Amino acid sequence: xxxxxxxxxxxxxxxxxxxxxxxxxxxxxxxxxxxxxxxxxxxxxxxxxxxxxxxxxxxxxxxxxxxxxxxxxxxxxxxxxxxxxxxxxxxxxxxxxxxxxxxxxxxxxxxxxxxxxxxxxxxxxxxxxxxxxxxxxxxxxxxxxxxxxxxxxxxxxxxxxxxxxxxxxxxxxxxxxxxxxxxxxxxxxxxxxxxxxxxxxxxxxxxxxxxxxxxxxxxxxxxxxxxxxxxxxxx
Length: 235
Prior knowledge:
Elements: E1 6-11, H1 13-16, H2 26-41, E2 45-50, H3 53-56, H4 60-63, H5 68-92, E3 97-101, E4 110-111, H6 114-122, E5 126-130, H7 140-150, E6 155-160, E7 165-166, E8 178-179, E9 181-182, H8 184-189, H9 197-205, E10 210-214, H10 220-225, E11 232-234
Parallel strand pairs: 1-2, 1-6, 2-5, 3-4, 3-5, 6-10, 9-11
Antiparallel strand pairs: 7-8, 10-11
Helix pairs in contact: 2-5, 7-9
C-alpha cells in the first residue's frame, strides 16, 4: 500500500455542525465517520483531534468577559463532546475507537497515556484525542501537533473549508493563488494563517509535514492517506 502508515487527522469543530452556526449535525458526523472508517479499513492507523468551535461558539458571547484560562477549559470540554460524538458514529459502523482525554474524566474517556495510545493504533483502533493538551493558551492545532509527534505520525492532515494554502483568503479574494507546497518559514513569515505559529514552529523543529486539504470534497481523507497529491504540503 502506498501512502502513509500513521496519520494525525485534525478536524475543526465547525465541520460537525454541518451548515448550522453551532451544535452537532448527526448526518454530517455520520458521513465524516464513514470516510474515516474507510481509511482505517485500508490499513492506515489514525489518530484524530477535533476542535470545539461548534459547541463553544454557542457560549462565545458569554466567554468574552471570562478569565482566559476558564474560557480555554470550557473549549477543551467542548472537544470532549465532539470526540464522543465521532467515536459513537464510528463504533456504530463497527470500527473500534478509544477517546483519550488530556483532562481526566474516567467515566467518559481514557486518560491520555502516550504508550497506550500507540498500542491502540497498532491494534487497529482509532484514537481520538480530546481536551487539547489540558493546558490553557494552547490551540487545538498545537494539541494536534503535540499528539502527532508523540505517536510518531507520518503527517498531520489538516482538514479545512478550502482546498489548500493560499497567499490570501480565497473565500474573500478571487485572485488568491494556491500553493502546492510551501515551507514552514514562508507560512510563518507571510502569516498565512493555516495553523497558529506555535504549531507551525513545532512541526518545523521536528520536521513533521502538514497536509492542508478540503474536507468538503468526499473521499479526500482517503486520497490524503494514500499519498495522492491533494491540497498543499507544508514542509
